[in-house]
Amino acid sequence: MRASLAPSAATWVLAQQAAVRGLVAIKFLAIGRILGPAAIGSVSVALLAVAIAESLSDTGLAQAIVQGKDAPTRNELGAVFATLVVRGLGVALVLLALAPFMASQFHLGRSLLPQMAAALPLVRGVASPGYYVAQRERRFSSLAAIEIGAAFADCGVGLAFALSGAGAYSVLVGMLLGEALKSTLTWAALAPRPPLALRWSGIGHYIGFSRWIWAGSVVNLVLNQFDKIVVGRMLGPAQLGAYQMSSRLAQLLLADAAIALSQYLFPTFAARHRTDANEAARLFKRWLALGAGAAVLVVLALRALAAPLFALVLGPQWRPAVPLFRIFVVNMALGALIAVLVAYLRARGDARAPAQASAMQVVVLIAVVPAAMHEWGVMGVARGMTAGLATAGAWMLYRAFKSR
User: Fold this and answer.
1) What is the reported pLDDT for 25?
2) Alpha-carbon gap, residue 63 to 230, rounded angstroms
3) Would the N or C end of the chain have less CB density within 10 A of its end CB?
């Protein structure tokens, strides 16, 4: 019991996952039932713009701090903080400038959702880099407390605004308050705190590793947002809402557990690899086998229960999303296994392999989706993603077991 409650124990990561993803599920499912597909689709367009901008400007510094051989100094953290603040401000200004274009292209009318979403990168950018040091040092209990507190604020405020008639704006109001609370807590609770000064030197040694993180982010941008752009642009917010909710529900029930677990595995694999590479490899194989077995069981259960699950949780207005959900649970299972592979490959310093895998996935997507879309419509896009994920996973599996 004492070991399971130690600050570095996986218990805290699992508790964080259960609480945070549970609160996110409550928020989106409740708001989705209250507002319907069109409102969820409108919010998805605004968040889509944020995801695109943040992926294109990803510095990879967070992962570089966790993976690096030596802990960062206060001056290095100061340079990281300055870089992230400028990045957040730049992304926010770009999104504000593009907001009218986004509204016109994605049928949002006079909605101010894109302008509201532009504040998210700036709020995230002012968080303390001490958060990444805590990840490196595996202080998972502190990180869990911060993440759960922010999720409570997000969920509570979002639901309160939705019930008061704020419509789709309620989702972004909750997110902004949650992110603001999280950024505040990183400064209040986590050490070391970087100096508040604009400095840029001293982090050049992170570039070799972080550039592959950036490359992977850019390629993943195409992979993760291409389908949403096509659906939102061609079919409008209502269809995008159904598409997005089926994907989000599959993610909540399956992939998010593995993604959260990777937050534990990445620093754990990195710490083991710094002392004993063979022990890190054995630990990776155990986690991969466990994840594969769990993923198969969950996929079979969710595909069987898809129709009653949507009827019970979201209501009859979401019934058209059921066939998409059955495809997405397979995709999310593949994504869950890929999360374990990415954590191990990056932990041993091979950030190139995930970026290469993402590039392969793009090639498969471009080759497969046109014919699949012609044959099955929007479901063809989801099936094309399945083929791409399988290709990426196979490549990373090969690289993970290949001796360096």
Assistant:
1) 79
2) 31
3) N
Can you list the positions of beta strands (E) in 186-304? none
Which residue's entry shows tokens 């466990």? 290
**Would you call 194 exposed, middle or buried from its count of C-beta atoms within 10 A (0-12, 13-18, 19+)?**
buried
Cis peptide before 192 (omega within 30 of 0): yes
Which whole number is the average pLDDT over 99-127? 82
Q: What angle do CA 100, 104, 105 make, to 5 degrees?
A: 115
From residue 12, how far is each of 20, 269, 302, 351 by CA, in Å?
Answer: 12, 17, 26, 26
Residue 183 scores a pLDDT above 90? yes
Instruction: Report how far residue 100's alpha carbon sits from residue 115's, in angstroms, rounded to the nearest whole number.
Output: 9
pTM greater than 0.85? no
Distances (CA, A) of 357 to 57, 118, 185, 215, 346: 20, 30, 36, 11, 13
Work out the angle at residue 374's Cα, subtended by the Cα atoms of residues 372 and 378, and round it to the nearest 5 degrees: 70
- Residue position matching structure tokens 């549970």: 22
| SS3 state of residue 338 | helix
Cβ burial, residue 98 (10 Å; 0-12/13-18/19+): middle
Query: Where are the domains positioned within the chain?
Result: 1-202, 211-404
